[in-house]
Amino acid sequence: MTSRAANVKNSRMNFKFQNESPQDYKGTKPIREASSILEVLSLMIVHICKKVLFYDTNLKIAIYLGALFVLSLIADVLTFPKTYFSRSDNVFNQYFVKIGWFWTLFLTVPYVLLTSFTTCCGKRRLIFTAHLSRLAIATFCWYAWTTIFNVIETKYGRCNARSFETKTACLKNGHFWNGFDISGHCFILIYSSLVMIEEAKAINGWEKIKDNIRDENYTRSLNDKSVSVNPLKNISAEELNILKESYEIVTPYVRALLIFIAILQLLWDVMLVSTILYYHIMIEKFISGVIAILTWFVTYRVWYTIPNVLPNLPGQGIFKYNNGKPVALTPNRKKSNAPNGKHFMGMPINTKQDTMEASTEEVR
Q1: Which listed residue (131, 175, 280, 343) is catalytic?
Q2: Which of 47, 131, 175, 185 is labelled catalytic?
Q3: CA-to-CA distance for 20 and 17, rounded, in angstroms?
Q4: pTM beyond 0.90, yes or no
Q5: pLDDT single digits (tens) 202-240
Q6: Which regions span the lipid bilayer (predicted)?
Q7: Which of 2, 146, 319, 361 is spaced 20 to 30 Å from 191 by Cα?
């Protein structure tokens, strides 16, 4: 009797009414994937490079000007001990400083191209007019100023032998040319450093793009019309796909280029100290440094900040990603109980176990 009652109960429990429809579940919000050891190591190096590059720029400029004035005055009075860097034929001077702008463009052009292609979602016209044009302007400024420096030295100088009126003939015959030689080395070392620092700022907030892509894909899959401040909410589906593909492809290269930019910028600072201690007089170095700083200020701090005037600042594309992490305004959604205590340099690190536990909690 008991067995028969149990069978009837089970049959009733398994019975499904015809008008009963399965409940629609929207699913759980995806969380960040587990970070590999290689990715963690690369983020550590990138974090150190960002600390080096993004040291307070105003303070850095003050240090540059102070060193150009004070150290140069001391170097004009005292004779510093000779070192490898005091030799004009040292490898860093011959193969780096003398072709310094080549190395600057060698690293910044691909860096700007990759970052702008991602943030502009492949819009080529915007890439060239809003971003690569900055490097074209910087190249023009470098060429114009170094040409002016050379003209001033050759036109207003004179040879210690009166029989030679040109600098080329004077030096060719073993004489000395007396001219006001504004330091091209100081100019390029300071100007190149400031340009690289500004262009590298596109990396700020770069890691958040991955989270924004994931969240936006999830929101669109639900056809969610609630208010959100995700910076990707206004881009088209095609642009979102381009962004997702390009971000995954270029991110390792962007990180690698940033590391080399930081190394080159450190080398420029070392060579600047060498130039201050062993070459030119104070006024020649100080004037070149002031010109480099003013050129940077007029372009990156004045011109590029004007709204609706090209080019744009580094990192500005068809969406904003480096002005702080957006907070979604969706009060009706259940907040994830995923563990949030594990962070590295401001970024959450989830292990596979954490991911499985978080998914289990969401299902419950």
Answers
A1: 280
A2: 185
A3: 5
A4: no
A5: 999 999 999 999 988 888 888 877 777 888 988 999 999
A6: 61-80, 95-114, 126-145, 253-279, 286-304
A7: 319
